[in-house]
């Protein structure tokens, strides 16, 4: 109850502040309408491209077995916690003006391609969401019972018949959800647009809020834009609520028996699948490899300002993780019985960090110096934005827990703190650890609300990296990117492991 | 004396009436066709299903609204009778104190209870390290510690082999006799009823009948029971 109220106060309170200040949508300009159009268009394009490209990759992963397949599937989960700014740095190293791709094209006399602008925003979104789509589609494939494939084989099916009778129906049920999930993620994309977008043709609503706030200091317009952003998110969520969204984390390993060769096709299809897997792996691994290749040697001579920023980021990540769990656990426990708790837990999905940041600024401006708000706001928005994920992870496990042990606990009179200590926390150790790992990684890599409030001196590690990139100190930026990447994954790994370790089973 | 006073239970279309009395210290089997509501009746007595109407009384005191943990009874379910992540010691400690905190005296009582059911020295084990029969014994040991006057058995030994099951039934009978416990047991197997329960409540056709002598009832069953027994 308390947790729900705290979360609602943050989300709805800032939203109210934004609404009051917006005073209708009169503050909007012509360019803002272009931003709205671009936001919708790039999200749709990113989602479509991700889904279409994911189909051959998922199909190949489904029907082929090769060394490193399990590892590759695990790696497909990695972009989920990869700091956006690190990925952007890697993509610039590959697709940028001096990047690998242009270096390869130059001998053929092809004009250099640019990573900046709409195509850059979409490439970055596909980089993040192709793995997500692949995992969701692969999950759909693995959900088809093995018996159905055996039946298909005994009926004399080949790969074409498998496509018609098994694959297409599965895709029809999985793809809309995958498309919507990615569309939603791309709607609130800020850091990608901040680094790769901009200008009249590649500005998202989130970026427009930032510009109105920082450059024009036009709070009325920022508030109007924030309201537009919320309206877009709510509309998309309402559509998504009608479709069933597949689990973003699903995708088990090898649940199905070995593929049946008759259904998997001959040499041409093997070649096609191999190509799909190779291209996907290169597309996903090359940018990360580029970060490390340039960054690891540069770790030794990082500028002084990196270290306080690193400490700040680590403290915020751990504190916001604790807040996330303190809100998500009670909400998830209540949500299996009461609908309001689940709705409360999903509230942050309607707001973005910039919307909350704008609202908080409007509330606090009369009372305190907004720069003092920078770190507390980063802490709170990071914590709030992780609550929906943590709640979704915890809820199914809590349902199992309640189905298995509610009656026993009730018959023994086990309740309150004793129940939490002896039953709830031990049985939920794994999902709690996983949620904590995700929350910490999100927070560690977040480049959102800090950009609104920072005076340039107060910084997190992602902001420090952004500043280094902005001043073209690329070797140091590569070093900072490597550091951020290592710390983010180390945090996720350590917390997830801690959950496994604490699991008394 | 356990009294079900004009008790009516409903779950969707399902409906069961019970108006009967069970003497203190009696051992009673609940027998009847599957789906007749034996386990439902037990759930209501244990406090998991609020009755649509009527009262449940123990020694004249109305316990209809009491929460499960405060009723004068212990229950053993078909499964999930122990928390698998806790040692036997802690599992049993929850029978003494739902906060799970124990002192030296409690520890000694837990050791005694485990010894009583033939699990001496297994305090530090987790349920996963025990056989099915041993898990049943541990559950029974906890009911010993709780010392509640009524014991409800919802087919807790159904998954055990015949030899283990009769061993467990004998142990329950022995303990119940010692402690003067009133036992209500749901069973699918008429032989279980003969072995443990001198009396039987027939649950059939939406009605829980008053307890009868087990032997004569099974030897000359009424039609509803005869169909179920198939003899």
TrEMBL record, chain B:
This is Thiamine ABC transporter ATP-binding protein. Gene3D superfamilies: P-loop containing nucleotide triphosphate hydrolases. Residues 2-230 form the ABC transporter domain. InterPro entries: AAA+_ATPase, ABC_SmlMolc_Importer, ABC_transporter-like_ATP-bd, ABC_transporter-like_CS, P-loop_NTPase. Transmembrane segments: none annotated. It comes from the Bacteria. Keywords: ATP-binding, Cell inner membrane, Cell membrane, Membrane, Nucleotide-binding, Translocase, Transport. Residues 210-231 are annotated as: Disordered. SMART domains: AAA. It comes from Thioclava sediminum. One of its GO terms (molecular function) is ATP binding. The keyword Cell inner membrane applies. The keyword ATP-binding applies.
């Amino acid at each position: 109850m308390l947790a729900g109220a705290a979360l609602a106060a943050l989300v709805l309170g800032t939203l109210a502040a934004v609404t009051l200040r917006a005073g209708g949508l009169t503050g909007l300009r012509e360019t803002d309408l272009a931003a709205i159009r671009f936001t919708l268009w790039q999200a749709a394009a990113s989602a479509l491209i991700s889904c279409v490209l994911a189909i051959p990759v998922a199909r190949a992963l489904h029907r082929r077995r090769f060394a490193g397949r399990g590892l590759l599937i695990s790696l497909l989960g990695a972009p989920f916690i990869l700091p956006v700014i690190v990925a952007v740095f890697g993509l610039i190293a590959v697709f940028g003006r001096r990047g690998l791709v242009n270096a390869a094209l130059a001998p053929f006399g092809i004009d250099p391609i640019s990573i900046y602008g709409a195509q850059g925003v979409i490439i970055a979104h596909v980089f993040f969401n192709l793995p997500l789509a692949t995992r969701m589609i692969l999950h759909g494939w693995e959900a088809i019972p093995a018996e159905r494939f055996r039946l298909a084989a005994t009926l004399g099916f080949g790969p074409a018949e498998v496509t018609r009778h098994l694959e297409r129906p599965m895709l029809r049920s999985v793809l809309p959800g995958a498309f919507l999930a990615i569309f939603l993620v791309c709607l609130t994309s800020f850091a990608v647009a901040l680094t790769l977008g901009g200008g009249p043709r590649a500005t998202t609503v989130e970026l427009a809020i930032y510009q109105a706030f920082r450059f024009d200091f036009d709070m009325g317009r920022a508030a109007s834009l924030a309201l537009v952003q919320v309206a877009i998110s709510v509309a998309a969520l309402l559509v998504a609520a009608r479709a069933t969204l597949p689990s973003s984390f699903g995708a088990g390993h090898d649940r199905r028996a070995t593929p049946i060769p008759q259904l998997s096709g001959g040499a041409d299809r093997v070649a096609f699948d191999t190509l799909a897997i190779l291209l996907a792996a290169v597309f996903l691994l090359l940018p990360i490899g580029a970060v490390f290749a340039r960054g690891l040697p540069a770790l030794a001579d990082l500028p002084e300002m990196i270290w306080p920023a690193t400490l700040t980021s680590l403290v915020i990540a751990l504190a916001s993780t604790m807040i996330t769990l303190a809100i998500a656990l009670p909400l998830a426990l209540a949500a299996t019985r009461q609908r309001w708790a689940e709705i409360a837990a999903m509230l942050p999905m309607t707001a973005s960090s910039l919307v909350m940041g704008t609202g908080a600024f409007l509330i606090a401006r009369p009372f305190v110096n907004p720069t003092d708000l920078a770190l507390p706001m980063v802490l709170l928005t990071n914590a709030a934005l992780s609550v929906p994920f943590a709640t979704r992870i915890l809820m199914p496990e809590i349902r199992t827990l309640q189905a298995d042990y509610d009656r026993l606990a009730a018959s023994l009179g086990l309740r309150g703190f004793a129940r939490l200590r002896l039953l709830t926390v031990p049985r939920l150790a794994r999902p709690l650890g996983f949620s904590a790992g995700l929350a910490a990684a999100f927070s560690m890599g977040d480049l959102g609300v800090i950009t609104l409030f920072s005076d340039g001196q107060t910084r997190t590690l992602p902001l420090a990296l952004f500043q280094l990139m902005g001043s073209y100190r690329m070797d140091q930026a590569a070093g900072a990117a490597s550091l951020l990447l290592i710390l983010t994954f180390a945090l996720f790994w350590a917390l997830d492991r801690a959950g496994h370790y604490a699991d008394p089973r | 004396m356990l009294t079900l006073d004009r008790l009516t239970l409903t779950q969707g279309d399902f409906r069961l009436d019970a108006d009967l009395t069970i003497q203190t210290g009696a051992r009673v089997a609940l027998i009847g066709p599957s789906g007749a509501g034996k386990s439902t009746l037990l759930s209501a007595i244990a406090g998991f299903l609020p009755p649509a109407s009527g009262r449940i009384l123990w020694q004249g005191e109305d316990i209809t609204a009491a929460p499960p943990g405060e009723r004068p009874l212990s229950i053993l379910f078909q499964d999930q009778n122990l928390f698998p992540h806790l040692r036997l010691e802690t599992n049993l400690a929850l029978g003494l104190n739902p906060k799970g905190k124990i002192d030296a005296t409690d520890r000694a009582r837990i050791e005694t209870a485990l010894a009583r059911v033939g699990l001496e020295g297994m305090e530090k084990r987790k349920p996963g390290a025990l056989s099915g029969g041993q898990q049943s014994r541990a559950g029974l040991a906890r009911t010993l510690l709780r010392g509640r006057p009524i014991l409800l058995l919802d087919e807790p030994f159904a998954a055990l082999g015949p030899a283990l099951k009769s061993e467990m039934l004998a142990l329950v009978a022995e303990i119940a006799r010692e402690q003067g416990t009133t036992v209500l047991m749901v069973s699918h197997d008429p032989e279980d009823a003969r072995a443990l329960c001198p009396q039987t409540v027939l649950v059939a056709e939406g009605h829980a009948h008053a307890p009868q002598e087990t032997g004569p009832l099974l030897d000359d069953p009424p039609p509803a029971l005869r169909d179920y027994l198939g003899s």
